[in-house]
Amino acid sequence: MADKSGFEIPQSMRDIAERNIDQAREAYERFMDMTKKAQALTPTATGPVASGTDRLQRKALDFAEENMEASFDFATRISQAGDMTEALRIQQEYAQSQMKAYVEQTQAMTEAMTKLAGKAQDTAKKTRKK
What we know:
The chain is mostly helical and 130 residues long. Helix content is 84%, strand content 0%. The protein has one domain (11-40, 48-121). The chain contains 3 helices and no strands.
């Protein structure tokens, strides 16, 4: 399928791109597995601030993982595009989707950090009273 400019993306290029994406995804998955194992081995501090910090770190890691998965999905889809028109449509859909995800993630992180700051203030007040 050729677009109006006549530029069709050869199947051989799409195949190479897809293999490269698969290799990158595998390397990323190994990295994430090691990161999660390292995080699980890290001693967990106690108290409301420490547990809030742990939750914040897990949330950030979850968001990073979601964003990387979206990036790999995007790369896979764009590597399968038959022409530039389709590639541009896929790019536009990805950009819109990620902007929405970033807004939602920013709101969630802001809420979590606000709660954590409140817990830290409460803990500091209790500590000063002792």
